[in-house]
Amino acid sequence: MDGPHLAKRPPHGGLRPILGEVTLAEAVRGHPFLVGLREEDLATITSFAAPVEFLEDEVVLTAGERSRYFYLLLSGSALIELRHRQYTVNIQALGPGDAFGWSALLPRQDTLFQVRARERSTALRLDGGGLSAALRKDSKFAADMLFLTLGLVAGRMQATETRLGEMCGVRVKKKDANSAVQNLNKLVQVCLDGELGYLTAAEHIKDAKLRVILSDFAIKRWEYAEELRAEVARLGGSPGGSGSISATLHRGWIALKSGVSGGSPRAIIAACETGEDSAGASYEAVAQSDVSGPTRALVETQWHAVEEARERLRQIQAQLE
């Protein structure tokens, strides 16, 4: 492990105690790029991870060289560059929550771009060989990582197209970051609506087991709202919502008002189903927009969880009949 005062550094950044009070497992679990992976997958990734730090202007990856590591950026920023003997073109700027070095996950694939730290930065460095071997042993893990990596590659291609188009005098339509922020903030409100809806349902239902289930759904909706707010902040936007539940029931949860008045478990669960139908439609609309990378992974993971909750409610309703 390199000391904090070493003047010379290895080419891929020195290992240092840079995570503070956060454990390595917590850093992996909390990284936006990995949202949606199973706990066992995150544990596997942790076994191949190490914290690294880069100095300002330090070259992390060199184009044309065999890549050994996949990086998850924690702090600072880095530049994806297309380097020629006579010039260098900046393709894309990366910030905390982004990833690079995907070629390390492929056999015999050289790095396509140069990656340089724009400032003092920290990252998680994943051993590409070890991780690739683990992916070959677990098809579900491999499929999920492939999905995340394809989003990363698509973002890189879009950035390259935009930059080269600008150099050639061609206007390339850029994705509107403000649109993504607005869509995420809409989902924040959807989740806060769901939190209030489930809390209201839990308060009025008499069955103790159902009360626990509905209360758990309420907690999950609050957690989803916080995850979305964090993603909005990562994108440079202003997180919507107050960080607390909504004041009144609205959207798909209006039907709950009449459901709880009668106290019928079937009516209450049916109203919750209606609320989840509305939430699922909202998530589907955002998923079909132009969100990509870690943002898309987060939205689709939460959308899947909402669909699972809706199915659970249907099963409960069937049992009550």
Q: Which helices and strands, and how do they pair?
A:
Elements: E1 14-15, H1 24-29, H2 39-47, E2 49-54, E3 59-61, E4 69-75, E5 78-83, E6 88-94, E7 99-100, E8 114-117, E9 121-127, H3 128-137, H4 139-167, H5 177-204, H6 208-234, H7 255-262, H8 265-287, H9 293-320
Helix pairs in contact: 3-4, 4-9, 5-6, 5-8, 6-9, 7-8, 8-9
Summarize the structure.
The chain has two domains: 14-167, Jelly Rolls (Sandwich); 177-320, Ferritin, core subunit, four-helix bundle (Ferritin). Helix content is 52%, strand content 14%.
Unreliable runs: 1-17, 243-248
Q: Tell me the name of the CATH class of the largest domain.
A: Mainly Beta
Q: What would CATH call the homologous superfamily of the largest domain?
A: Jelly Rolls
Strand order of the largest sheet: 1-2-9-4-7
CATH third-level topology of the largest domain: Jelly Rolls
Report the helical percentage: 40-55%
What CATH architecture label of the largest domain applies? Sandwich
Number of domains: 2
Order of helices and strands: EHHEEEEEEEEHHHHHHH
Q: What spatial form do the alpha-carbon principal axes imply?
A: elongated
Q: Which class do the helix and strand fractions yield?
A: alpha+beta
Describe the model.
With 321 residues, this protein is α+β, with helices and mostly antiparallel strands. The chain folds into two domains: 14-167, Sandwich (Jelly Rolls); 177-320, Ferritin (Up-down Bundle). Helices cover 52% and strands 14% of the residues. The chain has a five-stranded antiparallel β-sheet with strand order 1-2-9-4-7.
